Amino acid sequence: MNIGVCLPTTIPGAEGRQLIEYARRAERLGFHSLTVVDRMVYDNYDSIVALAGAAGVTERIKLITAILLAAYRPSPVELAKQLASLDRLSDGRLIVGVSSGMRADDYEATGTDYATRGRRLDKTIEELRAVWRGEGPVPGVGPRPTNGDIPFLVGGQSAAALRRAARYGIGWISPGGPPHKYPELVTKVKELWAEEGREGTPLMGANCYVSLGENGRQVATEHMQSYYAYLGELVQHLAKGAVTDEAVLRDVVDGYAANGCDELLLLPCSADPAQLDRIAAVVFG
Questions:
Q1: CA distance 99 to 175
Q2: CA torsion angle 217 15 40 25 (round to 10)
């Protein structure tokens, strides 16, 4: 199982130099991928811009939007150009993870419809690929992706999201949860994959919040209460799922590996690059 780590783009007040150091250190420590989380109505960095900065200071590590809320972006043509540019800057290291999202205000802020976001996301994926093939509404939009196309991962646990992953993606990303509940979803995605007539097997991913160190629990709780404030009282339950103990992190990594995960994406709750050293000591030690 490969292990990736998320840039702290959603930590309010995170400095640009911290994000750049995160990217450099993640590659140096041996993480397989570097990810970003997407939001509009929050004090966070733009996902594509942040990964472009990371692309400039790394050479090997995969770059994954996990996830990009592509359906709230008003112009698929503009988004296609941005993603292809990022793919070219990174020499083909980009994987586009997408999901429909759960916050209406993100869509309201960009003037797009929240109620039809699932159908819009399906159409957006198709339009992105058409532009990359040179078949967009207006000829001549470039650049072309390094390898002609950019692979998609799809996030979400709804029936529509799982079907979308099987139809359009190279695989699926779980938004989180304990490893012992993961195999059921793996089985479902593989069943849908076969129904869609896809060859091979889907890449299975999962997200997990991590906050190690002396004040790890406090840091995780404060961050998740801020980021998921729209969930109300449910955020307390969600915050308890963050891994704040080294032994528990080791068990979580082993559990996901045993239950069919191919790419475990760890989301630090702190912008301090030293957090990566603590995580690496556990997962690679």
A1: 10
A2: -70
**Start-to-end C-alpha separation, the chain:** 15
Which pLDDT score is estimated for 269?
Answer: 97
DSSP per-residue codes, the chain? -EEEEE--TTSTT--HHHHHHHHHHHHHHT-SEEEE---SSSS---HHHHHHHHHHT-SSSEEEEEEE-GGGSS-HHHHHHHHHHHHHHTTS-EEEEE---S-HHHHHHHT--STTHHHHHHHHHHHHHHHHTT-SSSTT--PPPTTSS--EEEE--SHHHHHHHHHH-SEEEE----GGGHHHHHHHHHHHHHHTT--S--EEEEEEEE--STTHHHHHHHHHHHHTGGGTTHHHHHHHTSB-SHHHHHHHHHHHHHTT-SEEEEEES---THHHHHHHHHHT-
Residue ranges, the chain, pLDDT below 70: none
The predicted pLDDT at position 229 comes to 93
CATH number of the domain at 192, please: 3.20.20.30
- Domain of 194 in residue numbering reads as 2-283
